[in-house]
Specification:
heterodimer, A: mainly alpha, B: alpha+beta, Alpha-Beta Plaits, 5-stranded antiparallel β-sheet, 3-stranded antiparallel β-sheet, 18% strand, disordered N terminus
Chain lengths: 110, 276
């Protein structure tokens, strides 16, 4: 319940406050969001499988975001930022789809 | 042993509920479905340990909304360098192409404008030449300064040659339009290039029209020059006086030559082909 409320509060805050993303962080925010989505889908799946652990979720969320941002940062330094961010998006996208498929099976048994 | 095997089977069934057509019994009564678990987690009394999860999700929502709104504001601000280069390249090429087009259109416009100017100049020149030709051909009324030469000839002694000489002298003095009027029978003829003088009974014949004295010759041109040309010794006026006539010259600052010459289509002459 608290997580769902937190998500709502975040969205409302984003809509209310007119803050733009700092310029230095701009390349990393989209990747970080995708990585966080991956963690969220993994968490929902864990809830449905009855093995959700808040500590695991927090660690995986933070680690996902940090690692994704780090990879993009490294890619930018090496001059392959665009390609690496594409790679990260692809991998995370695959994981999100896998998690979503599992969630779907849990929900609809299909 | 069998118990352990059963449990493995049940785990398999739990992991892949889609393949639920096996004859292994389901464990639904024991293991609640994913949806139920989710619902239970949502409606359960809030746990303090979930606070961090909530904070992280709030951050996620906040960041996502910011990013989406930023995207709406400026699509270029977080494009990568090579993307920017590509966009810049494309724009440069587009700008070059448009620049070329501008120049082409500008050239077209200049061409059209100059040709239109040429046309209007040519039209103006053609009008001017038409005006001159009309004056020379005697098909329009002409007004301007000039003289009137009145020749009274009671004895009908003034010959056609004298009149012709008068016209000739007027022309050499720069007369631009001349008409001759026979007040005796109230007829008038415009003198043009094709005019001719013949003797006739009781007067003269000019271009096929009989005129009876007294004659009035109206000429447009420089008044002094015209009058001078009539008065020089052995000139027109002395010839008229020799024929017992009387000639008077009057200068006018504004005269009108209102007799028109009817142009007939040339029957034999035609413009010679150019360049031959």
């Amino acid at each position: 319940m608290i997580p769902a409320l937190g998500l709502l509060v975040g969205i409302v805050a984003g809509l209310l406050f007119d803050v733009s993303v700092p310029l230095d962080l701009q390349p990393y925010v989209p990747i970080a969001i995708v990585a966080a989505l991956d963690a969220v889908f993994g968490g929902i799946r864990a809830v449905m499988e009855g093995i959700f652990d808040d500590k695991v979720f927090v660690v995986s969320f933070v680690a996902n975001v940090l690692i994704a941002a780090l990879i993009v940062y490294l890619g930018d330094q090496l001059g392959v930022g665009a390609q690496l961010s594409t790679a990260v998006i692809v991998v995370l996208g695959i994981r999100i789809f896998t998690n979503a498929a599992t969630i779907r099976r849990h929900l609809f048994r299909a | 042993m069998t118990e352990e095997k059963d449990r493995k089977e049940s785990e398999k069934a739990e992991k892949k509920p889609a393949s639920g057509e096996s004859d292994v019994p389901r464990f639904r009564p024991i293991v609640p479905s994913g949806g139920k678990r989710f619902w239970r987690a949502m409606t359960k009394r809030p746990q303090a340990s979930h606070l961090w999860v909530g904070v992280l999700l709030a951050l996620l929502g906040f960041g996502a909304v910011l990013q989406v709104r930023g995207d709406e504001e400026d699509a270029l601000s977080h494009a990568r360098r090579d993307e920017l280069l590509q966009i810049y390249d494309g724009l440069t090429r587009e700008a070059d192409r448009l620049e070329d087009e501008i120049q082409e259109l500008r050239r077209d416009r200049d061409d059209l404008a100059s040709s239109a100017g040429d046309e209007s100049v040519a039209l103006e020149q053609a009008r001017e030449r038409l005006r001159q030709a009309e004056i020379i051909a005697g098909t329009v009324e002409v007004s301007g300064p000039g003289i009137q030469l009145t020749i009274s000839d009671p004895d009908n002694q003034v010959s056609d040659t004298t009149l012709y000489n008068a016209i000739y002298e007027l022309r050499s003095a720069g007369a631009e339009a001349i008409q001759i009027e026979g007040q005796g029978n109230d007829t008038a003829v415009r003198i043009v290039a094709a005019s001719y003088f013949l003797p006739a009974d009781g007067g003269v014949e000019v271009s096929g029209v009989e005129l009876e004295p007294p004659y009035v010759i109206t000429a447009i041109g420089n008044q002094e020059n015209l009058e001078e040309s009539m008065r020089f010794p052995q000139g027109v006026m002395s010839k008229v006086e020799l024929a017992d006539g009387e000639a008077t010259v009057t200068q006018f600052s504004e005269l009108t030559v209102d007799t028109l010459h009817e142009v007939t289509e040339p029957e034999h002459a035609r413009p010679a082909p150019e360049g031959e």
